[in-house]
Amino acid sequence: RHHILSLADFTTSEYNAVLQTAASFQEVLSRRTKKVPTLQGQVVANLFFEPSTRTRSSFEIAAKRLSADTLNFAAATSSMTKGETILDTAKTYLAMGTDIMVIRHKEAGVPHVIAQEMDRLGVKVSVLNAGDGQHEHPSQGLLDLFTICTLIDPAQPRIELLEGKKIAIVGDILHSRVARSNIWSLIASGAEVYLAGPPTLLPKFFAEYLGRTENSQRLFTHWQLEPALENADFVMTLRLQKERMTAHLLPSLREYHQLFGITRNKLKLCKPNVKVLHPGPVNRGVEISSDLMDDPEFSLIQSQVTSGVAVRMALLYFIGSGRA
Ligand code: CP
Fold it and tell me: Which of 26, 101, 159, 230 is most buried by its number of CB atoms within 10 A?
């Protein structure tokens, strides 16, 4: 695989290769030196046209742990403020010897357009989608998968471990690229995936669209929280993406928390050892109660961030070593 743009066409063996490679990189990260020479001499450019804390920083540290040289670009402090286009920006980074472009943009499809342009130019640059609009966030989907699978079997994380598990994805499904990537990986795993959100954020047309996807018999949509939480093994709660909402979509935050916010009390509906995930950043006290977010007995939020480094090392390793 030359580019990583989506999980829609990921195969079981690709999922397992990422999970197992990430596990071996996690072992590297636990050593004193923490570094391997795998991508020595390669340049990884983080081209972020939209803000980020964890994705950008963890791709940077992942690249550094693989001994690559890293470049960090933020649109607000770049020559785009003088009118340079996205494609010209990408070509500028190409001309500086970039091997891997990690791209985030608020519009769906931008990483795909840049990947197409690199292919058209006949250059061996790989593009990694770090979140494109409402479309997909593949590295987040993979780190969520890794976080859950390593909890079940730390030595041999594999996608088959999720077969028959019940996983609830709760909240702003409509605007969530994280939900989109997670739906692909979780459906592929054989888990039962329950989506729950208010009708404005899980509209009927969208539920119907999802109902036409492959293996959709394992995908359920609800406008109430309870059916999704009942006997759930894992609950993934999502940020209300206010920046992508027009005013009429934004719910009252108090009412949203009452109906869809995850609290200790609501978790009583789930399996006793249920775990809660959130991709971050979190609107504390809205999607999840503040005390639950910080409770290591239930919350995997910090583990997700930690997993992100090893998983992104695995992704850079796959596309970086394939370039050799
Ligand atoms: N989960 C996630 O993508 O977070 P950032 O926006 O901080 O990268």
Answer: 101
Q: What confidence tens digit (pLDDT) does each residue in 30-39 have?
A: 999 999 999 9
Query: How many CB atoms lie under 10 A from the CB of residue 184?
Result: 21
Ligand 1 centroid to Cα of residue 243, in Å, is 14
- Is the separation of the CB atoms in 282 and 311 below 8 Å? no
The DSSP bridge pattern shows strands 126-132 and 69-74 to be: unpaired
Q: Is 261 annotated as a binding residue?
A: no
Residues whose CB is less than 8 angstroms from the CB of residue 33 and which lie 6 or more positions away in sequence, other chains included:
none
Radius of gyration of the chain (CA): 19
Structure confidence by residue, pLDDT tens digits, 95-143 = 999 999 999 999 999 999 999 999 999 999 999 999 999 999 999 999 9
User: What is d(CA 139, CA 55) in angstroms, rounded to the nearest whole number?
Assistant: 8
242: CA distance to ligand 1 center in Å? 15
Q: Hey, whose CA ends up nearest to atom 5 of ligand 1? A: 52
- pLDDT greater than 90 at residue 322: no
Domains (range + CATH), the chain = 12-136+307-321 (3.40.50.1370), 138-304 (3.40.50.1370)
Q: Is 104 annotated as a binding residue?
A: yes
CA–CA separation, 233 and 165 (whole Å): 6
The mean pLDDT value for 219-231 works out to 96
Q: What is the pLDDT of residue 324?
A: 42
Is 306 labeled as ligand-binding? no
Amino acid identity of residue 148, one-letter, is I
Task: Compute φ and ψ for 248, nearest 5 degrees.
Answer: -70, -15
Concatenate the DSSP letters of all residues of 30-48 into one string. TSSS----TTTT-EEEEEE
Gap between the Cα atoms of 1 and 10, Å rounded? 10
Rounded Cα–Cα distance for residues 192 and 220 (Å): 8
48 in Cβ contact with 58 (< 8 Å): no
